[in-house]
User: Which sequence fits this backbone?
């Protein structure tokens, strides 16, 4: 089992593209990544109920790290926690990581069987290579 | 203390929500224009979509009790609004539902429920007074409602005072610089316009004043 990852974005296209980019890191492997992005009618927005569902899909018992883009994605993810059972909620980390950079780092570490804390820490380090390169 | 308390039931809350939905629909372009000035230009359309979904629930499967109605309203808004007002308005109604208890609401229970809603919004958005958010209108409304109910005012008058306080709070957001949400990216440029959330929540309290406590 591996730590699950949930991508919460205002845009379905943005989320799917970020997942596709992350998937390149692990060719041929299934990633435990679930997406909750956009409104039902394909518009921009987030839905806390959909986030709660995605957490349920991504959770195999080892917990879930949730990556978000901005604003209502963060509020919806927090609201989603209220909809979860206590035991599931206790296995969820909402990450402050940047979405794209955090996701790429997180999937690699998650796929290698690391813990939720390790996956979350790797996601939060997501900006480090870019910062190091540009400084 | 003294005025006879009027029980607020499912029919009253339904009338409130329907009126709010109608007003949001009517003023959706105005709300979106405010949001275009300082945010991402979707507040009117998002809230309109959410309240239309709430009205559809009221038409198709109206919950039988006050707490159920408020809870269903909150859950519907959380799912259907899309923007930050989804979790914020959703939490407002879900917390009102949690505070409502069993049965209809007397005047004090209406004030308690709205206060619980405000507390939920504050917790969810982590906004403080002066951040240029819906809290700047809803907070004064709750204070005015509490004071008037405590003084024994009839609910209709107490809600009218709350609506007035909300409108003053909304107006006070005009010169503020936003510190929360998409508007915060604009910094000083966010000053000069009323906050869209403070504006819509004023409409919510005004709709309550127009519908609750009047039977």
Assistant:
């Amino acid at each position: 089992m591996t730590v699950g990852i949930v991508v919460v974005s205002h845009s379905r296209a943005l989320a799917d593209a970020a997942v596709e980019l992350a998937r390149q890191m692990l060719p041929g492997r299934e990633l435990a990544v679930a997406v909750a992005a956009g409104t039902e009618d394909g518009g921009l927005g987030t839905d806390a109920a959909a986030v709660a569902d995605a957490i349920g899909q991504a959770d195999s018992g080892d917990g879930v790290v949730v990556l978000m883009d901005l604003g209502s994605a963060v509020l919806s993810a927090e609201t989603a926690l209220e909809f979860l059972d206590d035991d599931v909620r206790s296995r969820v980390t909402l990450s402050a990581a940047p979405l794209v950079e955090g996701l790429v780092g997180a999937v690699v570490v998650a796929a290698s069987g690391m813990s939720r804390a390790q996956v979350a820490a790797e996601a939060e380090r997501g900006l480090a290579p870019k910062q190091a390169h540009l400084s | 203390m003294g005025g006879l308390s009027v029980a607020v039931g499912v029919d009253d809350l339904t009338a409130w929500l329907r009126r709010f939905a109608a007003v949001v629909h009517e003023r959706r372009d105005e709300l979106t224009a405010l949001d275009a000035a300082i945010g991402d230009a979707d507040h009117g359309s998002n809230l309109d979509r959410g309240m239309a979904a709430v009205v559809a629930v009221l038409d198709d499967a109206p919950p039988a009790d006050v707490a159920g109605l408020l809870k269903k309203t909150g859950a519907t808004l959380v799912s259907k609004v899309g923007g930050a007002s989804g979790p914020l308005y959703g939490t407002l109604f879900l917390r009102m539902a949690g505070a409502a208890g069993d049965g209809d609401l007397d005047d004090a229970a209406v004030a308690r429920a709205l206060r619980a809603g405000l507390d939920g919004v504050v917790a969810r958005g982590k906004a403080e007074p002066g951040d240029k958010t819906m809290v700047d209108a809803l907070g004064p409304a709750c204070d005015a409602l509490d004071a008037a109910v405590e003084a024994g005012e009839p609910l209709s008058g107490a809600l009218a005072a709350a609506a007035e306080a909300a409108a003053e709070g909304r107006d006070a957001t005009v010169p503020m610089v936003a510190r929360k949400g998409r508007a915060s990216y604009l910094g000083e440029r966010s000053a000069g316009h009323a906050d869209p959330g403070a504006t819509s929540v004023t409409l919510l309290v005004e709709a309550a004043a127009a519908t609750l406590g009047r039977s």
The radius of gyration of chain B is 16 Å. Chain B is about 70% helix and 0% strand. The mean pLDDT of chain B is 94.
